[in-house]
Amino acid sequence: MIGIDAGWRNGVIISRGARTMAALAGITHVVLDKTGTLTTGEVRVSSVYFQPNRRWTNHQVYRMLAAAEAPHAQRHPIAKAVFQYSLLQLNMEERTFSGRAANGSVVSSGIQCRMEVDGEEVNVHVGSEAFLQEHGIAMDADIPSSERTTAVYFAINSEFGGFMALQDTVRDEALSVIAEMKNRGYHVLILTGDVDEEAQRVSKELDIPILGARSAPHQKEASVRDLQSKGHKVVMVGDGINDTLAQAAADAGVLLASSWASNAGAADAMIVSPDLNALPKLLSISKKVTAQAKFNVWYSMAYNVVALALASGLLHPFDIVITPSTAGTLMSFSSVSVLAMGSLLWKRLE
After folding, report:
1. 294 & 280 share domain
2. What pTM was estimated for this model as a whole?
3. Are 66 and 151 found together in one domain?
4. Which of 112, 147, 169 lies at the terminal end of a domain, its last residue?
5. Residues near 246 by Cβ (< 8 Å), separated by ≥ 6?
6. Residues with Cβ within 8 Å of residue 350, at least 6 apart in sequence
7. Are residues 136 and 77 in the same domain?
8. Under a CB-based contact definition with an 8 Å cutoff, are residues 20 and 266 in contact?
C-alpha cells in the first residue's frame, strides 16, 4: 500500500500492486517506444522542397496546401502540421483564413481536391509518395537522407510540386530522464515502428541505441522476448496500442498517459501525465519498497527465532526467565517495529 500511495503521489497508477513492484525492482533493460513516448507526438514541418521551374509561386502553393488540409486539421496531426505551417508562411491566422477546397476525396494516404486560385481552377493532390504514384504522378525529386522522415508530397494539376518533411519533437525532459536511468545502471533502448532515419535521429539526440525500427507490433514483442531469452529483465514503456503485445510480453509494462482505454489491460503501471520524469521515480519507488519488504521478512523471521529461543528457556541457566507478560510485549514489539519501518519508508518516498 505504501508503494501504491507513493506511486500515486508521483503521478503513477500501479495496477497490480506487489507483483508490479517486484517486477520493476528487478529490471535491467528499459525499452522505450519513440512516437508519443520519447517524443511529444506533435508533428512539425522541418523543411520544405519546391520543385524548380514550376509555374506557381510559393505563396500560391501554401494557399493551396492550407485550403486542402483545413477541413482535416482538427482531427489529423499531419494535416494540422501542414495547415499551420502553411498559414505561418502566409502570415495568416486560422480565423482569418477563408480558402477552402471543393469536390475533395480523402483516403488514408492522401487528399485529392479541386479549388480556385487567382481565378483558375486547379486540381491538388496532397499525401504520401505512394498516394501520388497511385494517381500517375511522377516523382521528380528524392528526399535527402538527412530529411528522410515522414513526408507529405503534393502535386498541382498532376505535376509534382514538392514535399514537406515532418519531424516529431523530442520531449524536453527525455534527455535528463534517460541520463538519470543510465547513471543508475539501466540499459535504455529505443523500439519504434517509425522509419530507420527518424529512429537514428532520436537515437543520436538522446544517445541511446536502437533495439528495432520499422517494427510492427508482433516484431516489438519478438524483440522484447529476445532480450528476455538472454536473461535480461525488461520493462516496455509506450503510449499506443501498437505497444500492447510488447508490454504484455515484458516483465513489466508501463503505459504513458494518452491511451488508457486502448491498452490499459496490458500495462502494469500507468503514468497519469505525459511526463517521463515519473518513470525513474517509479523504478526508484519499486526498488525501495521491494528492498524494505525483503528486509521486513528477514527481520521478522530473525526476531521470532530469537524470541522463541528466549521463551523456551535459553537464558534459564543464567536465572533469566521470560514471563508471559514479557513474551506478549516482545511479540507486540515485532509488529510495531515493522509498522514503524513502513512509516519511515513512507516518509522517505515523499
Report:
1. no
2. 0.69
3. yes
4. 169
5. 31, 191, 217, 220, 221, 223, 224, 236, 238, 253
6. 6, 9
7. yes
8. no
Whether residue 215 sits in one domain with residue 76: no
CA distance 327 to 316: 14
Give how far the C-alpha of residue 215 lies from the chain's centroid of Cα atoms, to the nearest Å.
15
What is the domain range of residue 55?
42-169
Based on the fold, state whether residues 33 and 179 are members of the same structural domain: yes
Distance between CA atoms of residues 314 and 99, nearest Å: 94
Q: Does one domain contain both 202 and 316?
A: no
Q: How far apart are CA 203 and CA 219, in angstroms?
A: 19
Do 332 and 291 lie in one domain? The reply is yes
Q: State whether 279 and 292 are in the same domain.
A: no
pLDDT of the chain, 350 residues: tens digit per residue? 665 656 666 778 887 777 888 899 999 999 999 988 999 878 889 889 898 877 889 999 999 999 998 888 887 778 889 999 999 999 988 776 766 665 555 655 688 999 988 888 999 999 888 788 889 998 765 555 555 556 889 999 999 999 998 888 899 999 999 999 999 999 999 998 877 888 898 999 999 999 999 888 899 999 999 999 999 999 999 887 778 899 999 999 999 875 444 455 668 898 888 789 999 999 988 888 887 777 677 767 777 777 777 667 666 676 666 666 766 676 776 666 666 666 665 556 55
DSSP 3-state of 126? strand
- How many domains does the chain contain in total? 3
Alpha-carbon gap, residue 258 to 278, rounded angstroms = 15
CA angle 331, 334, 338 (to 5 degrees): 155
Sign, CA torsion 254/27/216/111:
positive
